[in-house]
Amino acid sequence: MKMNLFKNVLFLTLFSINHILYAQVAYYPFNGDANDAVAGNNAVVNGATLATDRDGNLNSAYLFDGIDDYMEVVNPTPFNFGTGEFAVSFWMKPLDPSQNFQMIFQKGNSSGTIPQYWLRINDLIGGTALRALWTDGFPPPAVIDYGNASLLFDGEWHHVVFQRTSESNELYIDCILVGSNDDINRDISSPGSLFIGAQHPNPPTSPGVNSFFNGLIDDVAIYDSSLDMSSVEEFCATPPSPSDEVPTLGEWGLIVLALLLTITAVAGIRQRKVEEAYP
Ligand SMILES: [Ca+2]
User: Fold this and answer.
1) How confident is the model over 113-158, as pLDDT tens digits?
2) What spacing in Å lies between the alpha carbon of 153 and ligand 1's midpoint?
3) Ligand 1 geometric centre to CA of 219 (Å)
4) What is the pLDDT averaged over residues 269-277?
5) Ligand 1 centroid vs 270 CA: distance in angstroms?
6) Residue 9 needs a FRET pair 20 to 30 A away by CA distance; which of 18, 52, 74, 253 works?
7) H helices within 89-204, ranges in order?
8) Ligand 1 centroid vs 90 CA: distance in angstroms?
9) How many angstroms is it from 242 CA to the middle of ligand 1?
10) What percent of the chain has a predicted confidence (pLDDT) above 90?
11) Higher pLDDT residue, 276 or 193?
């Protein structure tokens, strides 16, 4: 139990440091609501329901039904990064491996001639299980395809980073780089909303919101910088399991350091008390 507490404190400390180091423009922890903890750009919830998160906490993630559920952040400004670096980090558990074209998030519009960026469960039969896309509206878009549907639909939560660095567009799953390209000079800013769990309308062929995601999403964080994945691997940390109770070497180091500091402080207090008692 104590080790769980220690790990949670360590995780929160590292998580907080990362959120300070990287310029976060929005953060949706989905703990009880879909509010933005950074700047108040709250998501409007359309049908999605609160659900249990990856740590077993009730009402701390959102379930999208794959039929008509989605969220919309109407103010597009915080998510317009021009040609600059940015990153979207979140957790997901996709639930329906039989349905193509399930949009996880989309900023912009569904017309191929309007700037946008998005990530969706794409063509499960065709082998592009997950597609990440960046475009300035001039086809062809920059695309990363990921093919391992069995990993996405293994019933577990997966951490995803979708980002553009100064050198490449990148897609990470569980902190492993699964695809990249260097087609980065695209201005992705547009007046379109940020949708989570569905795709923008694209009249006349798709006049309504469409391509609904079936599954769970949590902890959506958006940054106006790219993430150095070698230093943020704790983003992918899984909750401690009973077999994961033994501290790592680094954690033992921190525990020993904390003990030494405590012993030194206690010894100092005792010394002062002795001096006060026997001046
Ligand atoms: Ca949450």
Assistant:
1) 999 999 999 999 889 999 999 999 999 999 999 999 999 999 999 9
2) 20
3) 5
4) 55
5) 44
6) 52
7) 149-152
8) 10
9) 22
10) 69
11) 193
